[in-house]
Write a structure and sequence with these properties.
The chain has helices spanning about 5-10, 15-35, 45-50, 50-65, 75-90, 95-110, 115-145, 235-245, 275-290, 310-315, 330-335, 345-355, 370-380, 400, and strands spanning about 155-165, 170-175, 190-195, 205-210, 220-225, 250-255, 270-275, 295-300, 320-325, 340, 360-365, 390. The chain is an alpha/beta fold and about 400 residues long. It comes from Guptibacillus hwajinpoensis.
Length: about 400
């Protein structure tokens, strides 16, 4: 337990972290990778280059300081990050390294304002928070390994099938090389794929949502190809598209993630934008098997990049309603009339389309702007925060904060 003096000291740094948090985390990562470059085999290089990881860590440090006297308040965030850490292979021995350079970064950025009292308080607080992460992650490692069909760390899978779903999305069907059973998962979860790309010094690890229903003999991931191959966040996805073929082997970790379809009987609404359809498709298939009242809304640029249209349409079930929104439909789209709205998903259309039953839960995933629009619309329609569930591709940001 933290002393009262430590808690008071940490809370006194909240206003400073609000202003200098991202500067501190940028300095932290610079020093960390300079002194421990091997950690670049774990961290997402794209998120580093684009500043998303630094921002996410700054938000986490700020939240920890703000709630240092009630750490149970940040437990959901701890579990979310712990899922990602387990899938990446973060281990207890990494935490002292991170703590050392986080304290050095605080000292470097705040200079004389980082008094010995503040640094000592943060060292003590970091130790407590790190132990929480280590404990939660150890449980997750054990659970992943001991579950039926589970395994520890990485396992080799062969690409059994590779299918193009749209102009930009391709699915990879993965079967275990050893031929043994594979772990089940909760619809909405992801796996991590580890790649060694020629001429790259470090390995790359990326998370991809599982896009088919659980309890198959394979895992399916559906990957979007970026138009600009030089974009940092397109390096791995484009490599999968262009260089990974049937018969090739991929190293993956067991399914993880805290964004998944709750096992209940209440009605659900699934909303996806672009490649955000991947976790939603798994949820959709599970909900149909459960005979659960489901409304599925998918937004896409147009029909040429709309993946899984036929697959979703084939799920003909009386408990399912399916709606499509195209931002810029082509002439062929107009001729086929498979979409229900032109433009963007907005409050007015959702009000007309959804029944808005009080016990309904809403799951959404897609580009940040799409999620901001959806959440803002749902709030205005009277949906409570505890009825909304959403997933970020990449480090989580404060969605409500980004709406302001």
């Amino acid at each position: 337990m933290l002393s009262t003096n430590t808690i008071t000291t940490i809370k006194s740094t909240v206003p400073v972290l609000e202003v200098h948090g991202t500067e501190i985390t940028k300095r932290f990562y610079n020093m960390l990778f300079k002194n421990h470059p091997a950690l670049l085999n774990i961290f997402n290089h794209a998120n580093q280059k684009q500043g998303r990881q630094q921002e996410a860590l700054a938000n986490a440090v700020y939240a920890a300081a703000k709630h240092i006297d009630q750490l149970e308040a940040i437990l959901p965030v701890v579990k979310q990050v712990a899922h990602k850490h387990r899938s990446l292979g973060v281990k207890p021995e990494h935490y002292p390294i991170v703590g050392e350079y986080l304290l050095k970064a605080i000292k470097d950025v705040l200079k004389d304002d980082a008094t010995d009292e503040i640094l000592q308080a943060w060292e003590e607080a970091y130790g407590v928070i790190a132990n929480v992460f280590i404990e939660v992650e150890n449980e997750m490692y054990e659970e992943a390994a001991k579950q039926p069909g589970g395994w520890d760390e990485e396992r080799n899978f062969v690409v059994d099938r590779k299918e193009q779903e749209s102009e930009v999305i391709t699915s990879f069907y993965l079967k275990p090389v050893d031929g043994k059973p594979i772990a089940s998962f909760k619809s909405g979860q992801y796996i991590s794929v580890k790649l060694e790309i020629p001429d790259d010094e470090f390995t790359h690890i990326r998370q991809y949502s599982l896009s088919d229903a659980p309890d198959k003999s394979y895992y399916r991931i559906s990957v979007k190809k970026e138009k600009n191959p030089s974009k940092p966040d397109g390096i791995v996805s484009n490599y999968l598209h262009d260089h990974v073929n049937i018969g090739d082997t991929l190293s993956i970790t067991a399914p993880a993630g805290d964004f998944y379809l709750e096992d209940e009987s209440t009605p659900i609404v699934l909303l996806s934008g672009g490649v955000g359809i991947t976790p939603m498709l798994s949820m959709l298939k599970s909900s149909v098997l459960q005979d659960r009242k489901t409304t599925f809304i998918h937004a896409s640029l147009n029909g040429s990049v709309h993946a899984f249209q036929e697959e979703v349409s084939s799920l003909n079930h009386p408990s399912l309603e399916y709606f499509v929104c195209y931002e810029s439909p082509t002439q062929e789209d107009h001729n086929n009339r498979i979409f229900h709205k032109e433009g963007f998903v907005d409050r007015e259309w959702l009000s007309e389309t959804l029944s808005l039953e009080p016990n309904t839960h809403y799951y959404f995933c897609g580009p940040l702007q799409f999620m901001k629009a959806v959440k803002e619309a749902l709030i205005k329609l009277g949906v409570e925060e505890n009825q909304m569930h959403y997933e970020f591709f990449g480090p989580a940001v404060a969605l409500q904060q980004s709406m302001e």
